[in-house]
Automatic annotation (TrEMBL):
Name of the molecule in the record: Nuclease SbcCD subunit D
InterPro entries in alphabetical order: Calcineurin-like_PHP, DNA_Repair-Maintenance_Comp, Metallo-depent_PP-like, Mre11_N, SbcD, SbcD_C
Task performed by this protein: SbcCD cleaves DNA hairpin structures. These structures can inhibit DNA replication and are intermediates in certain DNA recombination reactions. The complex acts as a 3'->5' double strand exonuclease that can open hairpins. It also has a 5' single-strand endonuclease activity.
SUPFAM superfamilies for the chain: Metallo-dependent phosphatases
Keywords assigned by UniProt, alphabetized: DNA recombination, DNA replication, Endonuclease, Exonuclease, Hydrolase, Nuclease
Subunit structure: Heterodimer of SbcC and SbcD.
Nuclease is among the record's keywords: yes
Length: 371
């Protein structure tokens, strides 16, 4: 079976108030062409279909057109789950009717346990679940984290799983050890959102969404597809596309890059050289400029946009360098050192020995729960 694994479409997304619908439409058209070229038999969408709980009319129409081409015109099964950006209850409206057309949409815990079986492969669809939802569903007050939520759900799936068939899980979550970028909305604060890879032991393929880098995790069975487009300048160097998954005697997942309508690029240089375009930069791409010798220029953004109409962000190089130095300084410290510095900044007093012991114990408990 040949499968297209995509996620994090974020239809309706903007960057610095600049709408990306035309760019998203272009990429979705590329995916349709790939479906035909690769003779895809099934499409998986692992969450964050929309960028907002209440998507715009134009965003909904774009997704409907994409699904119509896949599911109605080509009669392909589509498996999808809601992500943390999606409004699950609104997205799930009509899902029982959709199933009659082989568009299987999971937006609630109760959707997780009955697999969709296609070509003797069981697909389990796990939407993004808040710990509070799992606590209520299972009537279990001990559930406090995403790890505990997904452990409970997968435990029930394993109890009824058919060991004679291959099994695939589709979900939207932060796998422990994954690489983040700036455009992923945090699931929660601290380490409670992490889900260990061990939770999904025993599944032949785990198709994930949430992290936008297609190589955010290194695993033989767990894969992110990455986002449809570069949605922040921290993603400027990331490839974008889809995963081509082949399931027969074994399982193989290959990342297939696609070229966007406009690229997203970060360029550092001198203001005078940029305003004269000495580097012969293509003006149609989206840019973040980090420029030197710009403090004396009045309204530099307006002047630069006359040359580069798709300039979306402008930074002073001196400020950017200071930000990087602060980040490196923080990254090189241990957790306890960062907490001690924070306490000193807030109270002007160092932590007591007893406070240090309590924090060290709590950090150890968090690390133990995370893995």
């Amino acid at each position: 079976m040949k499968i297209m694994h995509i996620a994090d479409l974020h239809i309706g997304r903007t960057i610095n108030q600049h709408p990306l619908l035309a760019d998203q439409s272009y990429m979705l058209d590329q995916l349709i062409k790939e479906v035909d070229h690769q003779q895809i038999e099934l499409v998986i969408i692992a969450g964050d279909i929309y960028d907002r709980t209440l998507p715009s009319k134009e965003a909904v129409q774009l997704f409907e057109s994409f699904i119509h081409q896949l599911n109605i015109e080509r009669k392909l099964p589509v498996l999808a789950v809601s992500g943390n950006h999606d409004g699950a209850s609104r997205l799930g409206y009509g899902k029982e009717w959709f199933r009659t057309h082989q568009f299987y949409l999971s937006t609630a815990i109760e959707d997780c346990f009955k697999p969709v079986t296609l070509k003797e492969i069981d697909f389990y669809l796990l939407p993004y679940i808040e710990p509070a939802e799992a606590k209520i569903y299972f009537n279990d007050d001990t559930i406090q984290t995403h790890k505990e939520s997904y452990e409970k759900i997968v435990e029930e799936i394993n109890a009824q799983k058919n060991s004679g068939r291959k099994s695939v899980i589709v979900s939207h979550l932060f796998i422990q050890g994954g690489q983040e970028s700036d455009s992923e909305r945090p699931l929660s604060m601290g380490a409670v959102e992490f889900v260990p890879q061990s939770v999904f032991k025993g599944f032949d393929y785990v198709a994930l969404g949430h992290l936008h880098h297609p190589f955010a995790i290194q695993s033989d069975t767990i894969f992110y597809s990455g986002s449809l487009l570069k949605y922040s300048f921290s993603e400027a160097s990331q490839p974008k596309g889809y995963r081509l998954v082949t399931i027969d005697e074994g399982v193989k997942s290959i990342f297939m890059p696609l070229k966007p309508l406009r690229d997203l690029q970060v360029i550092e240089g001198d203001y005078a050289a940029m305003i004269d375009n000495h580097q012969s930069i293509e003006s149609e791409h989206y840019y973040q400029f980090i420029l030197h010798n710009m403090r004396h220029i009045k309204d530099p953004m307006t002047r630069l946009k006359a040359v580069y109409p798709n300039l979306l962000e402008l930074r002073y190089a001196e400020d950017s360098k200071a930000d990087k130095e602060i980040k490196v300084e923080v990254d090189e410290r241990s957790d306890i050192e960062i907490i001690e510095q924070f306490a000193m900044n807030m109270t002007d007093e160092p932590l007591t020995h007893n406070q240090q012991q309590i924090i060290a114990r709590l950090l150890k408990e968090v690390q133990h729960e995370t893995y």
